[in-house]
Design a protein that fits this description.
Metallo-beta-lactamase, Chain A, 422 residues, seven-stranded mixed beta sheet, disordered N terminus, alpha/beta, 2 domains
Length: 422
């Protein structure tokens, strides 16, 4: 309803309100008529034509109100101050804990005597971290994964990542800048396939894998003629090497936060991108056969029942990343479906080491994962390696760890003497 005021009454109302604006509290107000009138009856009353009144009473004194408000304000400020101090302390403690987790690593020196001896045979393998390896018979080179970039934990968690060209070129130089016939990632996650386009460009390698791996190559500018998408069970030949790609299963994380809703890279992936953009694609067990022997590269600690029942190899390159975070039943099933099923005579334990330590800073031994990955995320490198070594011993087969960069026998586990490894 529109309120109509005549000029005189409006002026009187403004004057009345102005007189009492600093010391009145209106307890009751009701519009009861179109025309508001002001009655000066000596009782500080504003009335309507209908007779309904608004009583205007003096509020408590200004000084008392001001003192009360000041006290309340000071009390609130004290509370806010302590809340702020507590929050800052928590943030500081959290930052310090995070810094400690990414800066420190578990001591894995107990495994020093388990590293393989230098190569004695013609077919060798050179390991350069996680599950990246170069197989060679002196004529033909086959590279698994080819991952040289090691993004920081912060970049993987909060930023974007892309191939480290300097690390790639330095790593290839340490491997002799050899030409590579085939570059084969075990699947398409960052720690296996991130560098494939740049490595293939520099070595002339044919990139082998799933459609997801192909899309990493395409996004990195690799020409289509250097990309080969394979079928399950398909065998490819490179010199005297025969490589068979067997679809298998990735490690099953106990924590659902690590599971991918969509495991495929469905279009060319052009870096820089978030680390999670490198999705699994398809996971493979890679069977490598040669007149000098045979090996199965099984980089991820997952398994598909009976997937390897027709495979018979000399050596299994067994990934154990995160294995100790799974149940004892899972671990036993894993061992049964991989080393036992393939009747392997030896095991090289791989994919237990750091994802984030710059490769230039790693010496002749793989770097242990930092405590964020190891303790908080569940890699548990020491326990995972220990399980594999003890299980191999109980099974009566040789087992060893691979040193960085050094050539060791590819099809015979060049384990240290058993007494040295005790």
């Amino acid at each position: 309803m529109r309120l109509a005021l005549n000029v005189a009454n409006a002026a009187q109302l403004r004057a009345a309100l102005k007189r009492f604006r600093s010391n009145i509290v209106i307890y009751y107000w009701k519009i009861a008529a179109d025309n508001l009138i002001v009655v000066n009856d000596g009782r500080r009353r504003l009335s309507y034509a209908s007779g309904t009144s608004v009583v205007v009473r003096p509020s408590p004194g200004k000084a008392a109100n001001a003192a009360s408000q000041k006290a309340a304000k000071e009390e609130n400020m004290i509370v806010l101050k302590w809340i702020s101090i507590a929050l800052l302390a928590l943030i500081g403690l959290g930052a310090a804990a995070f810094a400690w987790l990414i800066a420190t690593r578990p001591d894995l020196s107990e495994f020093e005597n388990y590293y393989a001896r230098p190569a004695q045979s013609a077919v060798t393998v050179r390991f350069f971290g996680t599950s990246s390896m170069l197989f060679s018979d002196g004529e033909t080179n086959i590279m698994i994964d080819g991952w040289f970039t090691r993004p920081s934990t912060l970049a993987m968690a909060f930023g974007k990542v892309d191939p480290d060209i300097a690390a790639i070129e330095s790593g290839l130089a340490r491997l002799g800048n050899s030409s590579v016939a085939a570059l084969i990632p075990g699947h398409s996650h960052l720690d296996h396939a991130m560098d494939v386009a740049e490595v293939a460009k520099r070595t002339g390698a044919m990139l082998i894998g799933s459609q997801s791996t192909a899309n990493i190559g395409r996004g990195g500018g690799l020409p289509e003629q250097q990309i080969k998408i394979v079928e399950d069970g398909e065998t490819l030949r490179f010199g005297d090497f025969a490589v068979t790609m067997i679809e298998n299963r990735h490690f099953v994380f106990p924590n659902d936060a690590f599971k991918e809703a969509d495991p495929f890279i469905r279009e060319p992936l052009t870096p820089p991108v978030p680390a999670y953009a490198y999705r699994e694609g398809k996971t493979y067990s890679i069977l490598i056969e040669h007149p000098g022997g045979s090996a199965l590269v099984h980089a991820s600690a997952g398994f598909k029942e009976d997937a390897l029942r027709d495979v018979d190899v000399d050596v299994v390159y067994l990934g154990v990343g995160f294995l100790a975070s799974q149940t004892a039943e899972y671990q036993e099933a894993y061992w049964g479906e991989v080393p036992t099923a393939t009747r392997a005579e030896g095991v090289y334990v791989i994919h237990w080491d750091s994802f984030s330590q710059p490769i230039a800073d790693i010496g002749d031994r793989p770097a242990a994962p930092n405590r964020l990955w190891n303790d908080l995320f569940g890699m548990r490198a020491g326990a995972s390696v220990d399980y594999a070594l003890n299980k191999a011993k109980a099974s009566g087969i040789d087992a060893a760890l691979l040193p960085m960069w050094e050539a060791v026998d590819a099809f015979t586990v060049a384990a240290p003497p058993r007494e040295a490894a005790q």
